[in-house]
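Slides due. Your pick:
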Amino acid sequence: MSRTQFPASALDAVADTPDGATVLVGGFGLAGMPSELIDALIEQGAGYLTIVCNNAGNGDTGLAALLRAGRVRKVICSFPRQSDSYVFDELYRAGKIELELVPQGNLAERMRAAGAGIGAFYCPTAVGTPLAEGKETRVIDGRTYLLEYPIHGDVALISAWRADELGNLVYRKTARNFGPVMATAARTVIAQVTDVVPAGSLDPEAVVTPRIYVDRVVRVEGGAR
């Protein structure tokens, strides 16, 4: 069992993120967005990244700031267009960034499959739409399904509420969203939290992400939203 590390800063936590990495970024809009870790990644300088997230950034901060900095080559997400997703919109219309659009349930399941060691799975979502183009199909009990493949991450950046000194994580309400599945799907999992409490302080029944999935924890102000 690996031992969770507790870097002194968010910048230290993301320091070894390489160019070209696939980075899973938690959050549903701003809820659960690991903004401090994203800011640190901007400062760290890694580029040519593939970002996997529910949406493609909000306003000018967090993920949108990473896009604006020109560090992202491709976004895999469910909701690239929102009223304040103008940074992604500008880049996409200018041909400066790629998009892979994935239905939200498929996005979560593809990452869960990665964490569970599932090689591929069949799903009916998107059958008969442009999203089905080029995908293998199979008829099962009279219904058509598409073959979907797992999404593995090199790094996952997630936001939790609290961690204990062992690295177990609990989340706060809707900030939980994609964090648990992303934590199982990446080689290196980095969590920002509001508090780090002594081992044994967390109710074991409330622990959502066990320490075995968590490589680094950094305490930041406002770590969970």
User: Anything to note?
Assistant: Residues 49 and 220 are 24 Å apart (CA to CA).
